[in-house]
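Quick one, probably user error.
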């Protein structure tokens, strides 16, 4: 079909958020004088089936293969400027690399209102933006910045000197002033051009307010867009537009922010680059860190990856010379030093209620001195399981191959995998025994024991349960900062990034589980976690004499020995050697095909036939399908198939054929592919 008048009509080719690797042609007709011809990158509303959907225009032409009688018309154009070509290329790369349809990658990156059945006029969002900006200009007044130490100075210069694509790993111990380096480098870049734009990615939303404040006060008069998933749709739209229109020159956000549209980008910073939360676990399973590096490569701009415990991937890249490395070996605040780490053997010092006598004494000392303590345990709830001593009953979830966690305050058992809730049985459901007991300890139980041990101290628990209400995390953290808390109990939520001024003791209560995990990355993660949480202590000079106490049954384990000496390099070197020996990433490239079905056998059979497809492929290691470690969630049984290759391009070429083949396979099994999986 050919359009009749190319001044008033054309065909557009669009992609939609549908699970089909296809594009769709529509005709566009000029109806009113103010209608403008669509362009590539434009968002349009088009009929699909019985409803209208938002489509992204990937081509505009005067001809199409679609016959006239099947041709439908573009319903309307979305009132936003077209997405830039670089952004389209980014989506295209992500779609190709992670083997997903382009529409499924691109469209979900847009704020919901632009995808809604009725796209709103954007007047309100634009008005809010304008108001914000004029308020900002009025408030403008810069804060003082500390004088950089020589290591920081050199790092800032190295970033500034870089031209073109230049990944730099900023390896700095906790509190070494990495953030200060980011800010100074950003300052330099922003000063170079009046439209220069910088993107800063952070792993956790709980960390953004503190950083946001710091950036705002440092860059008065410069508009900043905040991008994360826990904001209202209106807020999100406003911030997205601010980035998209080039209004914002600093983009700060969590992993999703890496997909933000912006007319230009001059530098990307990824803080805590090793953090697993950069990995999206559903939909498009991408690594925001990796996409950030790709984006920097695409635009030929510097990218800074910062961490106290770099990922082995990035570390490996510095060893091979692909990334340049800068080190900040000491704490930035003059005279502040890293805390002493002490390992307490809990097979000797049994103490009480899960706390060694040594740790209890250390807490007591902090209370006397009016200093704060932080106790870290990576398990929320009261106890991970209820058990009956007389018959062996355990509180298993009916829908998952997991235990239901005892939540005492709500008097409920709760499954952390599927969300199922049950009342606490008064007696054992199997044998009637009245005496069923909580086994093990979670944050709630620790909080309770501490309150009994130190009745006059002010104890606060911070975990996913205590911070469900919007704003509750922030107000809890404020309480700690104001010194209204003596003992802080929490999960990894409090382990990262926070700068608690009066904190001089960190207790790690029971880290041993991670030493024996089936997941080969568990020790890398534990090490990072221990360094991070330990890094919360002694961030001020007057607090020297601060301590990190790790309770373990394995004080001689090399991982703890590396933590003891704050020696990341030795630890990373050993892990890399192990990985090389056993053929694990980063020495091999992996993809994981995951399948789930009502019956495990169906999932396994699907994977068997998928495996057969790749058996004869050169340079590819096709492993056997296996049930997942957590085999059942919400009554669906799960299995996985690992494919590996020493060559990334061999693996990618295979995955391309494979996913096409699998998409055409008729099956009731639900499956997805994970490229560069974080855990196998
Ligand atoms: P990191 O990001 O490495 O944890 P930060 O940049 O947050 O470190 O710095 C830790 C603390 O040290 C902050 O309180 C910061 O204000 C302070 N700081 C950073 N650089 C300097 C410096 N050059 N001189 C004095 N204090 C500094
Ligand atoms: Zn029983
Ligand atoms: Zn469950």
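Nope, works fine. Designed sequence:
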């Amino acid at each position: 079909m050919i359009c009749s008048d190319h001044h008033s009509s054309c065909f557009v080719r669009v992609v939609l958020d549908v699970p089909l690797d296809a594009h769709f042609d529509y005709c566009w007709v000029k109806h009113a004088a103010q209608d403008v011809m669509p362009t590539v990158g434009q968002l349009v509303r088009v009929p699909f089936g019985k409803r209208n959907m938002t489509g992204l225009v990937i081509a505009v032409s005067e001809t199409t293969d679609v016959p006239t009688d099947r041709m439908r018309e573009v319903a309307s154009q979305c009132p936003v400027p077209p997405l830039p070509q670089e952004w389209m290329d980014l989506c295209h790369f992500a779609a190709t690399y992670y083997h997903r349809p382009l529409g499924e990658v691109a469209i979900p990156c847009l704020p919901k209102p632009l995808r809604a059945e009725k796209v709103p006029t954007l007047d309100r969002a634009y008005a809010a933006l304008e108001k914000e900006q004029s308020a900002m200009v009025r408030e403008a007044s810069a804060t003082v910045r500390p004088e950089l130490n020589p290591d920081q100075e050199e790092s800032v210069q190295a970033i500034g000197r870089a031209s073109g694509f230049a990944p730099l790993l900023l390896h700095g111990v906790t509190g070494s002033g990495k953030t200060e380096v980011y800010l100074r480098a950003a300052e330099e870049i922003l000063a170079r051009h009046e439209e220069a734009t910088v993107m800063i990615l952070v792993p956790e939303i709980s960390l953004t307010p503190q950083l946001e404040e710091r950036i705002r006060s440092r860059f008065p008069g410069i508009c900043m867009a905040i991008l994360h998933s826990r904001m209202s749709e209106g807020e999100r739209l406003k911030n997205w537009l601010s980035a998209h229109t080039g209004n914002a020159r600093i983009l700060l956000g969590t992993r999703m922010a890496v997909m933000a549209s912006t007319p230009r980008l001059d530098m990307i910073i990824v803080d805590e680059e090793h953090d697993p939360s950069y990995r999206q676990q559903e939909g498009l399973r991408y690594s925001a860190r990796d996409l950030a590096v790709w984006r920097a490569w695409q635009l030929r701009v510097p990218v800074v990856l910062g961490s106290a415990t770099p990922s082995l991937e990035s570390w490996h890249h510095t060893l091979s010379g692909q990334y340049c490395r800068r080190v900040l070996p000491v704490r930035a605040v003059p005279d502040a030093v890293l805390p002493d780490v002490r390992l307490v053997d809990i097979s000797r010092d049994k103490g009480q209620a899960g706390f060694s006598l040594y740790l209890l004494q250390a807490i007591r000392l902090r209370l006397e001195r009016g200093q704060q303590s932080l106790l870290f345990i990576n398990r929320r709830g009261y106890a991970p399981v209820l058990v009956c001593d007389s018959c062996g009953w355990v509180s298993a979830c009916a829908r998952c191959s997991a235990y239901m966690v005892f939540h005492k305050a709500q008097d409920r058992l709760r499954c952390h995998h599927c969300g199922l809730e049950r009342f606490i049985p008064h007696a054992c459901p199997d044998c009637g025994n009245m005496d069923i007991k909580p086994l093990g300890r979670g944050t709630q139980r620790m909080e309770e024991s501490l309150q009994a041990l130190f009745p006059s101290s002010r104890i606060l628990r911070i975990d996913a349960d205590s911070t469900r209400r919007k704003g509750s995390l922030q107000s809890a953290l404020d309480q700690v900062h104001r010194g209204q808390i003596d003992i802080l109990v929490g999960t990894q939520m409090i382990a990262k990034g926070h700068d608690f001024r009066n904190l001089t003791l960190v207790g790690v209560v029971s880290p041993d589980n991670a030493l024996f995990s089936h997941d080969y990355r568990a020790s890398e993660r534990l090490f990072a976690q221990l360094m991070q949480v330990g890094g919360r202590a002694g961030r001020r000079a007057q607090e020297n004499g601060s301590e990190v106490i790790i309770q373990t049954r394995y004080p001689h384990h090399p991982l703890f020995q590396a933590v003891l000496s704050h020696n990341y390099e030795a630890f990373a070197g050993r892990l890399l050697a192990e990985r090389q020996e056993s053929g694990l990433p980063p020495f091999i490239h992996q993809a994981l095909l995951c399948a789930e079905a009502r019956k495990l056998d169906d999932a396994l059979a699907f994977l068997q036939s998928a495996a057969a497809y790749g058996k004869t492929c050169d340079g590819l290691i096709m492993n056997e399908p296996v049930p997942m470690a957590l085999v059942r969630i919400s009554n669906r049984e799960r299995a996985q198939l690992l494919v590996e290759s020493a060559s990334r391009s061999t693996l990618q070429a295979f995955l391309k054929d494979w996913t096409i083949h699998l998409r055409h396979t008729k099956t009731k099994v639900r499956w997805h592919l994970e490229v560069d999986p974080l855990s196998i």
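Residues 388, 390-391, 393, 428, 430-431, 433 surround zinc ion (ligand 2) (CB under 6 Å).
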